[in-house]
Amino acid sequence: MKPRIIGLYLPQYHPIPENDEWWGKGFTEWINVAKAKPLFRGHYQPRIPADLGFYDLRLPEVREQQAELAREAGLEGFCYYHYWFGNGRQLLERPFNEVLASGKPDFPFCLCWANHDWTSKTWEKGSSLRRDTMIMKMVYSREDHITHFHHLLPAFRDPRYITVDGKPLFAIWVPKGIPNCKEFIDLWQQLARENGLPGIHFVGQTENTGKALQGHKANYFSTDMAKDYYQAVIDLGFDAVMSQGFLRGTALAKGRLKMMFEMLAFKSLRPTYSRIDYSRLMDNYYVPEDAAENVYPTLLPQWDRTPRAGKKTFLLTDSTPEKFQHYTEKALKLIAAKEAEHQILFLKAWNEWGEGNYVEPDQRFGRGWLMAIKNAIEKVSSD
């Protein structure tokens, strides 16, 4: 059985009334992508899409083309970001709703609840129309959890929905953001069984270091605490974690003094970008605990969110499909001893163009990022 690579999928590329109001008529993230400018010699900006162009996700033809590219590269399916803010309020739901209703593309999928507030910094680069304002705030309640479950039940029952151990996979981006999270998970497990499902396979996203655990100070340089970060999510009732090593990789690539200096610079009146070599970060991205049965590591092809953030950000330099293939092979070997059902890697991401975090074809590398995944699977399978 080949590895289960699931691409995190941003459904943002179509106009919605809310974005028209907040950022201007017809806004999608393509606006930020297209107007990005290089900040230094050799900086690859703007990043212009190739095969699919500046697409509109209201078009079923685009969604079919994406699925075909993903299938050819060896992905099992897409994990659509799901924006549910409570009281039945959603945003960016149209592409997935149309995929569900139409039965097309015939390509596996699951959902990741992006349960974080939207502020005026969510999409806009630099100054915004409404600086530092709350756009949409997460609201939680038991009644809404029940409504939320029944809203998603048709998706969970769809034959395309990705399962683990027979249960629909449902990822949550901010596990600790849900008040009384264990009660929420217990409630959904009960509702699942009452509605003929064997349960839900809950996956909580987490870094493997960084923000403080209860009883500990924040420690971005820890090399032996990943198990504690992962366990803190499992203890909330999750079946598995989606692990990321960006914070740890950044800290260890830069060193303590440089990190402290740059964090102070970010808080100044004239912040500036911070460059990190892709290979140096990725050499510190994975930890031995990522080989655990209930840990699903992430693949990171590249990262440059200057189209969204301007200068106030970290960005990776010198990422190439060849280097991405090397680290994809490393991740595949990490999970090779797990049971077939649990040989899962989340690709972060399929199409986060505003964060320079995508594998869709671009003008510089063509289908190179996709070929890197395909080549890595073939190479590790043949070893």
Task: Describe the protein.
The chain is an alpha/beta fold. Helix content is 35%, strand content 18%. It is built from 13 helices and 16 strands. An eight-stranded parallel barrel has the order 1-2-4-8-9-10-12-14, surrounded by five helices. Strand 7 and strand 8 form a beta hairpin. Helix 8 crosses helix 9 and helix 12 packs parallel to helix 13. The longest helix has 16 residues. 43% of the residues are buried.
SSE blueprint:
Layout: E1 4-9, H1 17-23, H2 30-35, H3 60-73, E2 77-86, E3 89-91, H4 94-102, E4 109-113, E5 118-119, E6 134-136, H5 142-157, E7 163-164, E8 167-172, H6 181-194, E9 201-207, H7 226-234, E10 240-244, H8 246-254, H9 256-266, E11 274-277, H10 278-282, E12 295-299, H11 306-309, E13 314-317, H12 321-335, E14 344-347, E15 351-352, E16 357-358, H13 368-382
Parallel strand pairs: 1-2, 1-14, 2-4, 4-8, 8-9, 9-10, 10-12, 11-13, 12-14
Antiparallel strand pairs: 2-3, 5-6, 7-8, 15-16
Beta-strand content: 15-25%
Query: pLDDT under 50 segments (min length 5)?
Result: 125-130
Q: Quick one: overall form?
A: globular
Number of strands: 16
Name the helix and strand elements from N-terminus to C-terminus, one letter apiece: EHHHEEHEEEHEEHEHEHHEHEHEHEEEH
Strands side by side in the biggest sheet: 1-2-4-8-9-10-12-14
Spatial gap, N to C terminus: 15 Å
Mean pLDDT: 92
Largest sheet: 8 strands, parallel, barrel
Count of DSSP-assigned helices: 13
